[in-house]
Design goal:
Blueprint lengths: L8 E5 L18 E6 L5 E6 L2 E6 L3 E3 H7 L5 H8 L2 H9 L1 H13 L1 H4 L3 E5 L5 H9 L4 E6 L3 H11 L6 E5 L11 E6 L12 H11 E8 L2 E9 L2 H7 L15 H9 L3 E4 L11 E7 L10 E9 L4 E14 L9 E4 L11 E12 L4 E10 L7 E10 L4 E9 L2
Parallel strand pairs: 6-7, 6-9, 7-8, 9-10
Antiparallel strand pairs: 1-2, 1-5, 2-3, 3-4, 11-13, 11-15, 12-17, 14-18, 15-16, 15-17, 18-19, 19-20
Helix pairs in contact: 4-6
The structure holds S-adenosyl-L-homocysteine.
Length: about 400
């Protein structure tokens, strides 16, 4: 293809395209390409990471325009996912999670008598139904933005709760309730606690709909960290290249580091035995005082004294939440998603160091964790870990993990 002397322009792929023949170029959604020539209105001559080929013009958009048009909350995709059963089945099959919610209602049933409740992001309505069946609230407003709401209405009828539970389909930010509420309950927690930032919707609803002195459930949330080993994950993704069918494939390790260790690993199960120290709480959120602006950047410190010798492969993070009791002298219900608690569908989040550090009992690992919300893509964030190991070794490092942009 002869390039016609026009200055190359940068474009972003709007969706995936698979090349048909060597003249064409395969692209993935989000790839940034250089367009060298536009020989027809349908096919453009483009370059991606040094490789050139034809790409359908309809698949490309000029960078800034693409970002302006795309919703920074990606609600279509987000609520689209919650409109199908897969995630609801996963959440409802998670007994620790769902039983904790039931316990909250059971332990507080006396105090919930005649109360008005908002269930923000009710999904299939499980929490609202617990409220209606296990307590005698005056009203439950079950708010759900995804298409699941239509089924939730049917579930409420089928379980004869329609006199108490009203399903409102829409974003919590936009729905109108007929009155203020005494209790705002929501299961908003994501990976590493904040991922997807549903918590923002909860804070905005608190300002609008929770009456003075009302109750937030959960009432507080904590992010916890521990330095850990991850032998099998390290072996599977990194040590693998050291002896690949008797050959030395270690030149692929930098690629492996980039591909497998640059982002955190969700749904990792850290065994108790793989924790090198006692866990440390790095962030504590008070759901009564937390502000939306606080979410932009949150920093916590940690200091561990290692109780185990081994390979320090990375950090494991998880969260716990507490539902305060409304009963005189009642105990709070806690949902803990860590390695020392009953497993949940969140499992834990693993942050791998680029290179493991050999450590010994008594060594200290101190540092900080910073969550930075993506200024454009509002459901995404980066996690920066800064660490300093002292004792039998002295090593300091820092790494920023995108989740996902
Ligand atoms: N409460 C249910 C579902 C929890 S998952 C359960 O415990 O099983 C979170 C739900 O909140 C999803 O169904 C999602 O669609 C909904 N959601 C998230 N943000 C919302 C918002 N701003 N307004 C309304 N619904 C929201």
């Amino acid at each position: 293809m002869e390039e016609n002397g026009e200055p190359p322009e940068e474009y972003v792929a709007l969706c995936n395209f698979t090349a048909n023949g060597s003249e064409q170029l395969s692209v993935n959604r989000g790839d940034r390409l250089i367009v060298h020539a536009k020989p027809s209105s349908d096919w453009w001559w483009a370059e991606l990471q040094g490789v050139k080929g034809y790409v359908p013009a309809s698949h490309l958009h000029q960078g800034d325009a693409a970002e302006e048009e795309e919703d920074p909350w990606q609600d279509e995709e987000y609520f689209g996912n919650y409109g199908t059963l897969k995630l609801h089945l996963e959440m409802l099959s998670d007994k620790s999670r769902t039983e904790a919610c039931r316990q909250v209602i059971v332990h507080n049933s006396a105090s919930l008598q005649s109360k008005v409740i908002m269930d923000l992001g009710c999904g299939t309505g499980i929490v609202s139904l617990f409220c209606a069946k296990l307590a005698q609230p005056a009203a439950v407003y079950a708010v759900e933005a995804s298409a699941m709401a239509q089924y939730t209405r049917e579930l409420v009828r089928r379980n004869t709760c329609e006199a108490v539970v009203t399903v409102l389909q829409g974003r919590a930010e936009e729905v109108q309730l007929p009155e203020q509420v005494d209790v705002l309950v929501s299961e908003w927690m994501g990976n590493c606690l904040l991922f997807e930032y549903m918590v923002e919707s909860v804070l905005l609803a608190r300002e609008r709909w929770l009456r003075e002195g009302g109750t937030m459930w959960p009432s507080s949330a904590t992010l916890t960290l521990v330095p850990c080993q991850a032998h099998s994950y390290y072996a599977e993704k990194m040590a693998f290249w050291e002896n690949t069918y008797g050959l030395d494939f270690t030149p692929l390790q930098p690629l492996a580091r980039q591909e497998f260790f640059a982002k955190p690993k969700f749904s990792h199960v850290t065994a108790r035995d793989d924790c090198l120290a006692s866990p440390h709480d790095v962030l504590d959120l008070d759901m009564y005082t937390l502000q939306v602006s606080d979410l932009e950047e949150m920093e916590g410190q940690f200091q561990f004294c290692l109780e185990k010798s081994g390979q320090f492969h990375g950090f494991t993070a998880w969260f716990s939440v507490r539902f305060e009791s409304l009963e005189e002298g009642g105990a709070a219900v806690e949902l803990d998603t860590g390695p020392n608690a009953e497993p949940t569908h969140w499992k834990q989040t693993l942050f791998m160091l680029d290179t493991p550090i050999v450590v010994h009992v008594g060594d200290r690992v101190q540092g900080s964790l910073i969550l930075r919300r993506n200024p454009v893509w509002r459901r995404h964030m980066t996690v920066t870990l800064n660490w300093d190991v002292s004792g039998s070794v002295h090593e300091a490092g820092s790494k920023t993990f995108p989740m996902w942009r």
